[in-house]
Amino acid sequence: MPAMTLLGWFHTIMGIAALLLAVGAISRHGVIKASTQLGGAYLVVTVVVAGSALGIYNQGGFGIAHILALLTLGAALGGFLLERFNIFGAASKYFQAIAYSATILFHMIPAITDFLRRLPVGDPFIDSFDSPVLQGFHLAFLVLYIVGVSTQIIKLRKHTQ
Questions:
Q1: Can you give the residue range of the structural domain that contains 116?
Q2: pLDDT per residue over 118-159, tens digit each?
Q3: In whole angstroms, what is the distance from residue 32 CA to residue 40 CA?
Q4: Counting Cβ atoms within 10 Å, is residue 50 exposed (0-12), middle (13-18) or buried (19+)?
Q5: For 54-98, how does the pLDDT look when each residue is reduced to its tens digit (9 = 90+)?
Q6: Which of 29, 31, 110, 145 has a CA 20 to 30 Å removed from the CA of 153?
Q7: 155 lies in a domain?
């Protein structure tokens, strides 16, 4: 695995900040909203993280991490448009929660992959994208995403009744 570049370190530090902001926003408001201070900060940092990911080419070219960065940007933009313009009426808030929560999932997949492939230095936990350990983490993040979105939707439904 190549050494971390300055861009890689910036990307990693900002990614951690984004995840902490997401946890704070969901803890405080039940959902991520651009209209709140924590949610807005999360989305700005998320766009920076996804944008910086597009400049990292330590795997030899355009790859899955770049695709996830583009998906993150699309989900962030989609969630923002849903929040701002209420495109689907009352259902917009549910789609917004799904979109903004997807950005967290899209952060976590490359984050855990890179972590497991780099650490511990000299003897990383995994040496392949096909590792059952890595696939287990990816599955766990998908389950957490589904549970998290379901919880948010239930809270949003209760709040509107």
A1: 6-160
A2: 899 889 999 999 999 999 999 999 999 999 999 999 999 998
A3: 8
A4: buried
A5: 998 766 789 899 999 999 999 999 999 999 999 999 999 999 999
A6: 110
A7: yes
Residue 1 domain-assigned (yes or no): no
Token pair recorded at residue 100:
């903004």
C-alpha dist (Å) from residue 90 to 83, 85, 103, 126: 11, 11, 22, 45
In a domain, 13, yes or no: yes
Domain count, the chain: 1
DSSP string over 37-69: HHHHHHHHHHHHHHHHHTT--TTSSS-HHHHHH
Look-up of token digits 């530090």 = 13
Using the predicted structure, report yes or no on whether residue 104 has a pLDDT greater than 90: yes
125 lies in some domain = yes
* 2 upstream amide cis, omega within 30 of 0: no
